[in-house]
Design goal:
The protein is an all-alpha fold. It is 58% helix and 0% strand.
């Protein structure tokens, strides 16, 4: 891995976001998310749910994700 010198923090920060978005990059992104999914697959309840507010929907999602995290065998 090459070593780079920067004069300012902003210059270093900009370099973090520069990358070549070619076919190889997108293949790596897909492989990464497939790996994440394989490691931590959350099974959401099936069906259609009706909520009064978006906050209620978010609370339900957080509840499912929290229960998944608490039941995860380590």
């Amino acid at each position: 891995m090459p070593l780079y010198k920067y004069k300012t923090f902003e210059e270093a920060e900009e370099d973090l976001w520069k990358h070549n978005q070619d076919a190889h990059y997108f293949k790596n992104v897909i492989e990464f998310w497939n790996f994440v999914y394989a490691l931590n697959r959350i099974i959401y309840p099936k069906g259609i749910f009706k909520f009064k507010t978006i906050e209620d929907a978010h609370k339900q999602r957080e509840k499912v994700e929290f229960e998944h995290a608490m039941n995860k065998k380590r």
